[in-house]
Amino acid sequence: MDISNVNCGPGHGISVGSLGKNKEEKNVNGLIVRDIVFNGTSDGIGIKTWESSASKILVSNFVYENIQMINVGNPINMDQKYCPHPTCEKKTAHVQIQDLKLKNIYGTSTNKVAVNLQCSKSFPCKKVELIDINLEHKGVEAGPSTAVCENVDGSACGKMVPSALPELIQRPMGTMTLCYNTFIFSYVFV
C-alpha cells in the first residue's frame, strides 16, 4: 500500500495497529507513507502491537518519507507495549517489527517525546533506519524534544533532532554525511 500526498488534520494520524490481538492475524508487509503533512493531529505515524499478543506475525518493509509535522502530539510512535486497559494480562509479545525506514521527517511536536520507539524485549525491532529526523518541541513544557528508544536494532544518518542517539550524532567531513550503525539499545534520552 502506498499512501502519499495527503494533508491530515485534525485527527489521529496514520497508524498501523493494533496488531497481535487476534490469533488469526497475518503478516503486514510493504507500506509506504510519503509526502504527507500532519497538522494538529494527536499522532503522526505509528505502529501499535499488543504487549500480550495472541498471534505470531511479522511487520516489515515499511517506509515513512518526506513527512511534515505541524504541532503534532506524538509525531513518531512505534509502540510494542500497547495495552489500552490496565488489566492486560502480561504475556510474551510475538510480533516482530523489522525493515523500517524513517526518512526526512521534520516539524514540531506538542509533546516533549517527539520520537517514541518502544519495542519488545523478546522481539526487538530490527533494521530500523532513521535518516534526517528534525522534530522540535513547541509545547507547553519547557525544554527541547526528547526520544524514548527501547530494544531497537538500527542505524541513524544525517540530522537527528531530538538527538536520541548521542553516539550517532552526525560528524561532518567536508560535504560527506557519516552514518553510524548501532546494535540493540534501550535508553531514554533527555
TrEMBL record:
Gene3D superfamilies: Single-stranded right-handed beta-helix, Pectin lyase-like
Chief location of this protein within or outside the cell: secreted
Active site: H12
Domain of life: Eukaryota
Gene Ontology terms for molecular function: polygalacturonase activity
Assigned protein family: Belongs to the glycosyl hydrolase 28 family.
Compartments where located: Secreted, Cell wall
Official protein name in the record: BnaC09g33090D protein
UniProt entry keywords in alphabetical sequence: Cell wall, Cell wall biogenesis/degradation, Glycosidase, Hydrolase, Secreted
Species of the source: Brassica napus
GO biological process, one term: cell wall organization
